[in-house]
Amino acid sequence: MANLEEALNTERVVYSEETIQARIKELGRQITEDYKDKELIVIGVIKGSLYFLSDLTRAIDLPIKVDMVGFSSIPDTTSKTGIVRITKDIDLDITDKHVLVVEDVIRTGLTTAYIIQNLEMKKPKEITLCSMLLNPDRLLMTIPVKYYGFEINDQWLAGYGLDRNEIGRNLPYIAQIPKQK
Amino acid sequence: MAIITISRQNGSLGDEIADALAARLGTIVISRKYALDNFFGEINPGTLDRLNESAKFFDLQLPGSDRTYADILVERIRALASESKDKDLVILGMGGSVLLSGFPGAIHVRVTASETTRLNTIARKYRITADEANEVLDIGDRKHRKFVRTVYGKDITAPEQFDLILNTDRLSVDECVDAIAELARKHDIRVRLAESNDSSNTIDHQTRNIAFKNETEEEFARILSLYNIEWLYEPKTFPVEWDAEGNVTMAISPDFYLPKFNLYLELTTMDQRYVTKKNKKMRLVKELYPGTNIRIVYKKDFNELVDRLKMFGGVGDNS
């Protein structure tokens, strides 16, 4: 059976473990400074943000609360494309709280916009975003990205939470993979 | 913010719908009782009884004034509507649909029900017999019609004055409130967008029926809906070039507007030959209309988005 790199057919390391961890420490320091007198709830988006959320929250030196949100698409008999729905809602009350949503990658921002719209219904004081990766050239939506780890282009990536057909999340670094035809 | 007038048949649950809607919107119901309590200053009990009893007394002049109760009623309700730019207003009865006919942003609702439903509701509410309920209905309906005919000279039952007519034979109060609130919210977006043209010299391009120019636009609309992202199709035209006489020689009507994100999106997916021209128009919009969020969805972006949605079943890390 092929190992993980072989299964993904990785082409090159884009961000190494060391580079990722160093950047997360910087982000953690910045978030700690920005929210030092505020009640902060950090919400990770399942499943891609799993590792980033884990490392980022441990780099924040504040008494934060952590939660997770998940969503998926389901078929809908009334439309061709189906609908997106929340499959795991948050458990914490975010009313009047500062919320930081943690994503693994933001490209068009459509999925992030969907999550923000849903969280806004719970009347938080403020919602901001922290994404490990951001593609500013493809960002369509006006969403409140306050922090991000690295800028990326259109390359296809796997590792550190990012997957291809659910494989590759546990790769400890971020690698470029071939585009699927 | 919404201005909603509710006209109702007696026993149709219109009063209950108005109360629940006002509670949902965090406002109060402007009813005939509210008007009598607040619009006319001190009223002696005799006059109050007469105003409650019959519409014809609204033609009386206020003591020491040449203005009638009807004049004051009209003036105060129109003033409330004009001042309600940033708050919701629910007006129950009093011919609100006539009074605020054509008022920008106002939604006029009529609540009806079959005679059987109304009789049952009245009989239960007042614990009276069917015959007594029948009489209550007759008197109530006659009074409603007479009030509007006397004060405004109009027929309150004419359906064309209403944007939405609800029949509570099968609909619950909650369902009706959902329908009214959602209609008012969406209509408010259209009205505000239309009004924004006054200050920006842009042109209202909203239609009441969407006609996509091609399948790509239709597909993109589906993707937005998939993510529950509200959109309007080509709602506004931005003039970007004028001749010496001030005639518009170049303009752009972005394909989509996302009100929640205050964002215009223009698709360039059909023909890349137009990309340069569209890029120029985008640049001009940003220069001429500062603060306008407008972005191009390039063919490559669109195709990748569709491919990734297919591949990841609608969601995924690479979308």
Helix and strand arrangement:
The complex is a heterodimer of chains A (181) and B (319).
Chain A: H1 4-8, E1 12-15, H2 17-34, E2 40-45, H3 50-58, E3 65-74, E4 83-88, E5 98-106, H4 110-120, E6 126-134, E7 145-151, E8 156-158, E9 174-177
Parallel strand pairs in A: 2-3, 2-5, 5-6, 6-7
Antiparallel strand pairs in A: 1-9, 3-4, 8-9
Chain B: E1 3-8, H1 14-25, E2 29-30, H2 32-38, H3 45-53, H4 69-83, E3 89-92, H5 96-99, E4 106-112, H6 115-126, H7 130-152, E5 164-167, H8 173-200, E6 203-204, H9 215-226, E7 232-233, E8 236-242, E9 248-252, E10 256-258, E11 263-268, H10 275-288, E12 293-298, H11 299-311
Parallel strand pairs in B: 1-3, 1-4, 2-3, 4-5, 11-12
Antiparallel strand pairs in B: 6-8, 7-10, 8-9, 10-11
Fill in the keyword field for this structure.
heterodimer, A: 181 residues, alpha/beta, three-stranded antiparallel β-sheet, 4 helices, globular, B: 319 residues, Rossmann fold, 2 domains, four-stranded mixed β-sheet, disordered C terminus
Describe the structure.
Chain A has 181 residues and is an alpha/beta fold. Chain A has a single domain (4-177), classed as Rossmann fold, CATH 3.40.50. In chain A, 24% of the residues lie in helices and 32% in strands. In chain A, strand 5, helix 4 (110-120) and strand 6 (126-134) form a beta-alpha-beta unit. The longest helix of chain A is centred in the N-terminal third of the chain and has 18 residues, at 17-34. The mean pLDDT of chain A is 91. Chain B has 319 residues and is an alpha/beta fold. Chain B folds into 2 domains: 3-188, P-loop containing nucleotide triphosphate hydrolases (Rossmann fold), CATH 3.40.50; 201-311, Endonuclease, Chain A. Chain B is built from 11 helices and 12 strands. Chain B has helices at residues 14-25, 32-38, 45-53, 69-83, 96-99, 115-126, 130-152, 173-200, 215-226, 275-288, 299-311; strands at residues 3-8, 29-30, 89-92, 106-112, 164-167, 203-204, 232-233, 236-242, 248-252, 256-258, 263-268, 293-298. In chain B, helix 1 (14-25) packs across helix 8. Chain B is elongated. The chains are: A alpha/beta (181), B alpha/beta (319).
